[in-house]
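User: Hey, my collaborator sent me this sequence without any context and asked if I could get a structure. I don't really work with proteins. Can you help?
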Amino acid sequence: MLNKYSSLLLLIGVSILMVSCKKDYQKISVEFIHNLPDTCVFLTQVDNDAEHLVFYKGSNCNQFYCYTAETDKVEEIKCPKVEEYYGSPRNIGAGKENIIIGYMMDDTQGEATIDNNACVQIYNLKTRSFKEFTTCNTVEFDFGKNQLLCQTFDTNKYGEGSRIDEIYDFDGKLLSNNEVEIVDFEEVPSGTLAAREQEALEQERIEQQQSFGNNNRPARTLYYCELCGEEYTNVQDLLNNSCLRNKMGSTLGHHKLYEGSIKSVYTCRYCGKEYSSIKDMVFNSCLRRGGGERHVPAL
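Assistant: No problem. I've predicted the 3D structure and written it out in structure-token form, which is a compact way to encode the shape of the chain:
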């Protein structure tokens, strides 16, 4: 009987000792955050019965780090590579469920221009995996409000058209969506080649509109490239010339003939957006296609 009693006391003593020696992982995580060097920025913390993690970043946005309190180990998490025209990671923010990374070209951060390309990647804290969230022209982070602004331009080559402003929180939840009309966004100095090209384009539109009022036939026969919108007076010249928008590159890639009829308004076959010329249409990215792909004129 004494032996059983002694064994019970020993078991209770061992249990008390184990409980008293159990590490306070939450406290360890808090101390780790407090001791982060000035070159590092705390992102977010995962603290539950299953795991105790601290996510933080350094001065380089190409990667961030995960500290595990249970093992006292640090894991480097590299941001995924994206298409070259999206640039590199420029900012990293963190919500409750996700870490969000904005990509832009190094020399265009914060500049809202129609020529930029940008994208946003999301890292889910539960699945520990990345996925592409959205593509746009510019991305701006507001760390005071824990929000990011994605701007997508839908304009002609002279910057006239509209801009879509989408605001998300750092978990990727859409907070607002607003379309802004843009007029003379990019002023073209008079007398320059761009100004003369703009005037010629406007004159061509007037001629086309007049021709449609005259038996619905164009005043002259023109052939257009479906990829870039360049016009030619014969098909052979069009097909024999290189196209900068061809995915094979300007060395091997040639223009692709638009086989539809000449219209006063052209419609994108993927999203239904309307433009007065093919050149204006294919200059803009199509939100329905993704990956920075451009509009494609319907026949």
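In plain terms: Residues 24-68 form one domain. You can pass these tokens on to your collaborator as they are.
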